[in-house]
# Entry
Amino acid sequence: MNRIFSGVQPTGNLHLGNYLGAIKNWVKMQDDFDCIYCIVDLHAITVPQDPVELTSNTREVTAGLVAAGIDPKRSIIFNQSRVAAHSELAWILNCFTPLGWLNRMTQFKEKAGKKRDNAVLGLYGYPVLMAADILLYHATHVPVGEDQKQHLELSRDIVGAFNRTYDRDYFPLPEPMILGQATRVMSLRDGRSKMSKSDASENSRINLTDDAETIQHKIRRAKTDSEPGMSYDPENRPEATNLLGIYAALADENVEAVALRYADDGFSNFKDDLADLATAKLEPISAEMHRLTSSNDFIDGILRDGAERAAAIAEPNLRSIKEIVGLL
Ligand code: TYM
# Structure
């Protein structure tokens, strides 16, 4: 059986990178797969969080997933901390993960920065918890943006280590699915750095909560270059390439085809069209998010129901893992 698992951190606004790199694909997958989508609040606390904001972000991200088209009846949507089996399996998998594998993780190096000794153990073990998320449900496919590729390779290595130790094909090897025309959406202010929640500049990203005016404003202010016409050239024209990729992903077109169509247009015309397209696609999501977050009851009901359905899969699996390890 094929099963999708993927996750998103409730650490701030969902942005266009999350949407095009992940959530838009998650919506489509509901037609063909059994899907589990997790708001990973335990991952979020690997960096300091304000408790009140963390709770409200968890609700807001849930609203974002539903507003983008994830159907909480068909798919499971829940927050990670409600299903204790994630933490328990993470501990077991910690015991199969050599430090050398974790030392290679570029996201840890970036987040820990120069003061590595001050970085917390949770941040270091982050990818093991991610492996636990996936393996707890025996997920076969994991749709993510490109930045998660290394973490998924580690999950596959952990599967290998576990299965070899007990000499059986217990966990399926999870397959990364890095799909679409915008697997790595870049900052609107700098085409060489990733669009991210932690960028200090609000103008670097489009949030799913932005209204039409803000979307238009951010696209018009996006960094450009001085070349004539638009062209797809990741090496030399990162800003033009990023905007073309965003257009292609929003319109479900091929990026080369979009680049050809705008080859004789300057940034200004292209940005006008991109701003209209982005507004048409994103504003309904933003409006629906605002509607859904006006009362907590509906969202809390989704998370409660999702956690029950997730636990019904996770708990028997954790029991069989414990039996294999000899823990019962
Ligand atoms: P997070 O919360 O950083 O991002 C959620 C999803 O959005 C994608 N993404 C992007 N895609 C394209 N361009 C960007 N600029 C961009 N920024 C973010 C991410 O690749 C991701 O798919 N560790 C994960 C959450 C996680 C998880 C899991 C994912 C926890 N457990 C198990 C899959 C399976 C994370 O921090 O995602």
